[in-house]
Write a structure and sequence with these properties.
heterodimer; A: 372 residues; alpha+beta; Rossmann fold; 23% helix; B: 293 residues; mainly alpha; 72% helix; binds adenosine-5'-triphosphate; binds magnesium ion
């Protein structure tokens, strides 16, 4: 089976370690998206799989074969680069045929394969053009075509859509998804765009500073983020974080301001009296009557998106003291309210957390304590 | 966005152009006109009488075996200088492009010859290959080569080619290196993934992408070999032995200023001017448009 195995892979540049032992198993035909902030080592990891960077430690296998010491050409992979890396002096046809010519295929076989890929990608009218005579989206397709014709064991994508405008990006995202599904080729896809990551991935790898913080399906990552980093990175606007404390029974949750939240439905065993970070997604805050309020928000900025209204403001305690909000969410509390709510700057909004939408993280380690 | 600067009136732009125009007129147009004028005249040996002779100077020129020989020498010389200079510079640039540690050191060393005045370079090579005191001549003799470019025309040619190439190699190197560094690394990586080995990558990706640079350098080097090597030849071989290293430019000088055949020398200048014009046209037609890819 043509899967990709990445086991305890480490990358060091001189004295600086940039990948700290990452393990990912990509099943046959699966599309795994590696997402993370700039500089976290996504490209480096992908390039080690491609054979463009030496692997300092650990093991990479493709199709069940350890490839650590193999040249890129012997790894049976194809890669789409961020800048497409099309050969500027060759026609679209020759760009796609280049690898096949080197592989020594017959002229007819090459033509058949290129024609097939070109039809699939709607590139037939452009086969004689040079890359500079193509639009960004078309170049992107040629880069895809160059991969497809080689019928590799795996596709590697390094931010292939980041040079396109927003609309084209959405369209190409769908095309890549459909293509990957219909070809069933195992794929590793690197992006820093979380929407791209969520929509494309069979499974998601969230990377931070050279470590894979969580590997799971997009929905599980969204619902049960393993760390405060993942919680803050996936989801937009980002999750709100507040410092708090777990009661001795493992159920009661109190904000550091003293305001009690609802008790957790299930106790978190063994963590009584622990200092925690409490996470609430903006979309899990609802407007309620002031008697049922758990949190009170003084409105700062209102963003009207039509379907939704995003409200950013400060957390109030008993109507008075302004509480700083900790964590990646920034200094403010954000809430995503329905579009028909009329709010203005300076309003005070009584809010309640949706049932079961509270995330509790160990304040020291940042790790998730329970799914509640 | 380009913003077009426009001047009111003609006085200021004219004043700004004047220095350049004056230099062009005094050092180019006037001598060129003089050469054209002289090329149809003949002077007696004492410079007392000049007579109009029409195209006789040119006729004499092209029936002179020595002049035709100079053509041949120029051809051999420029082809050798251009071919060796370009391939050597390309080789050095490719290697320098790979070096990571101490790269700037290598580059500085490779660029240094360009800072040396041509006459100094010529003298340097003259010393190194001097049959009686030269270091290289001595070393060559030790390995069985009887080096004496003062007697052997072929060796003299080798010497001037070496000196001329050495002088020009930095220039070529810099352009090739810049060209190489302008090629995105991902192209090479894509080709590596596509299965191309280093040689295949060079010939199918790198070299075609360097071709605009190479073509530009080709014209520059031919021009250099034709016109800018006077000082080197003057300092190393003075066109000898016989006329084995007398290229066209050198012959203008030796016939005109040494042989004092002003009419013939002027006619040669006119021929050279025609060659410059042709080369310039080639340059503009091709380089300005670039070698397209
Ligand atoms: N050749 C190198 N030498 C030293 N450090 C390097 C080298 N290449 C990359 N790094 C470092 O490795 C880290 C990871 O780089 P990488 O390119 O993988 O990031 P990335 O996650 O792809 O970021 P981006 O989203 O900006 O592309 C960065 O901190 C970078 O500074
Ligand atoms: Mg990257």
């Amino acid at each position: 089976m043509a899967g990709i195995g990445i086991r305890d892979v480490v990358k060091r540049y001189g004295d600086t370690k940039v990948i700290h032992g990452v393990s990912i198993d990509v099943a046959d035909g699966e599309l795994i998206v590696i997402v993370g902030p700039s500089g976290c080592g996504k490209s480096t990891l992908l390039r080690m799989v491609a054979g463009l960077e030496d692997i300092t430690g650990g093991e990479v296998s493709i199709d069940g074969r350890v490839v650590n010491r193999l040249e890129p050409k012997d790894r049976n992979i194809a890669m789409v680069f961020q800048n497409y890396a099309l050969y500027p002096h060759m026609s679209v046809y020759d760009n796609m045929a280049y690898g096949l010519k080197i592989a020594g295929l017959s002229k007819e076989a090459i033509r058949a394969r290129v024609d097939k890929a070109a039809t699939m990608l709607q590139l037939q009218p452009y086969l004689d053009r040079k890359p500079r005579q193509l639009s960004g989206g078309q170049r992107q397709r040629v880069a895809m075509g160059r991969c497809i014709v080689r019928e590799p064991a795996a596709f590697l994508f390094d931010e292939p859509l980041s040079n396109l405008d927003a609309k084209l990006r959405v369209q190409m995202r769908l095309e890549i998804r459909q293509l990957q599904r219909s070809l069933g080729t195992t794929s590793l896809y690197v992006t820093h765009d979380q929407v791209e990551a969520m929509t494309l991935a069979d499974r998601l790898v969230v990377m931070n500073a050279g470590v894979a913080e969580q590997i799971d399906t997009p929905m599980n990552v969204y619902l049960h983020p393993a760390t405060t980093f993942v919680a803050g990175f996936i989801g937009s606007p980002a999750m709100n974080f507040m410092p708090g404390r777990l009661g001795a029974d493992g159920r009661a949750v109190t904000l550091d301001t003293g305001a009690p939240l609802r008790a957790l439905p299930e106790p978190i065993a063994g963590h009584g009296e622990k200092a925690v970070t409490i996470g609430v997604r903006p979309e899990h805050l609802t407007l309620v009557g002031s008697e049922a309020a758990e949190l009170t928000l003084r409105v700062g900025v209102v963003e009207t998106l039509g379907a939704d209204t995003l409200v950013h403001g400060a957390l109030l305690d008993k109507g008075q003291a302004v509480v700083p909000v900790a964590g990646e969410g920034g200094e403010v509390l954000a809430a995503r309210l329905p579009g028909n709510v009329a709010v203005r700057e300076g309003d005070t909004l009584p809010l309640r957390v949706v049932e079961g939408a509270l995330h509790v993280f160990d304040r020291e380690t940042g790790r998730r304590l329970a799914d509640v | 966005m380009h913003k077009k600067v426009t001047f009111r009136g003609v006085a200021l732009p004219l004043a700004l152009l004047l220095p350049q125009l004056a230099i062009t007129a005094v050092f180019f147009l006037w001598p060129a006109g003089q050469a054209l004028y002289q090329s149809v005249l003949r002077q007696d040996p004492f410079g007392l009488r000049t007579t109009f002779v029409g195209l006789a100077n040119f006729e004499r020129l092209f029936s002179d075996p020595l002049y035709l020989n100079a053509f041949q020498v120029t051809l051999v010389f420029s082809i050798a200088v251009t071919a060796i200079g370009l391939s050597l510079a390309l080789l050095l640039a490719v290697m320098a492009d790979r070096v990571i540690k101490g790269a700037s050191g290598y580059k500085t060393l490779l660029v240094m010859p360009y800072a040396v005045a041509p006459a100094v370079a010529g003298v340097l090579w003259w010393f190194l290959f001097n049959p009686s005191i030269g270091l290289f001549a001595h070393a060559l003799r030790a390995v069985g080569v009887d080096w004496n470019h003062l007697l052997n025309g072929d060796q003299a040619m080798i010497l001037v080619v070496v000196a001329a190439v050495w002088k020009q190699i930095s220039y070529n190197f810099l352009f090739f290196l810049a060209g190489l560094q302008a090629i995105p690394k991902s192209l090479i990586e894509a080709a590596a993934i596509d299965g191309a080995g280093p040689f295949k990558r060079f010939w199918t990706i790198v070299f075609p992408l360097l071709s605009p640079t190479a073509f530009f350098l080709l014209v520059v080097n031919v021009t250099y070999a034709f016109f800018d090597t006077f000082q080197i030849i003057h300092a190393t071989t003075s066109g000898g032995p016989g006329q084995a290293t007398t290229i066209l430019v050198y012959k203008v000088y030796s016939d005109g200023f040494v042989g004092l055949d002003l009419g013939g020398s002027a006619a040669q200048s006119v021929v050279l001017m025609a060659i410059v014009i042709v080369l310039t046209i080639v340059q503009f037609r091709w380089i300005e448009r670039r070698v397209q890819y």
